[in-house]
Amino acid sequence: MRIINVIGIKDGVVDTIDSFGVFDETKVQEVVDKAQALFIEKAREIGLEGEIDEENDPIFDDGYYGIMNVCVCLSWSDVEEVSDIIKGTFVSVWDGGEEVRTPAELNTKTGEVTTESVDVEGLDLDILDREYFETSDGDELEVCTDCHEYILKTVMKEGIGKTLNEVHVCSNPDCDNQ
Ligand SMILES: [Zn+2]
Hints:
Blueprint: E1 2-10, E2 13-22, H1 28-45, H2 58-62, E3 64-67, E4 70-78, E5 85-94, E6 99-107, E7 113-115, E8 128-135, E9 140-142, E10 152-158, E11 164-170
Antiparallel strand pairs: 1-2, 1-4, 3-4, 5-6, 5-8, 6-7, 8-9, 10-11
The protein binds zinc ion.
């Protein structure tokens, strides 16, 4: 995502920063107009005078107005969007070692695995041994064999004699596998 910042600098350090995000590239002009209006407002606060052509003033090309020890500037920056979704493969392993692999996505926040329905037709499959989500790096994350939709997470549970045991439970709080 692109962001336009109006940055006020005083004595060489950032004093104020106002950021306007371009969430929708078709509305970029609206965002630019808002940022430019604030830029002019801040510039006037520190001494800018005279008429400004709000559409196309040369001051916007400079993106800078400064006097003495204060200045205000317009600056674009890019923010990488962080996605919680990673792509991988849903693998189910059946008795006899038969593997069925399907492209899948994992939501790393909720632990939910989404995949197109696994086509097992025509295969002589009987008992499901294991299911896991394989990341593109080859890491294998166990999928809950109860709901088949969430990976397992490790939690500490109190065992006998107040010992803590690592147990694997479903990431889905609504699943019985807790
Ligand atoms: Zn589950």
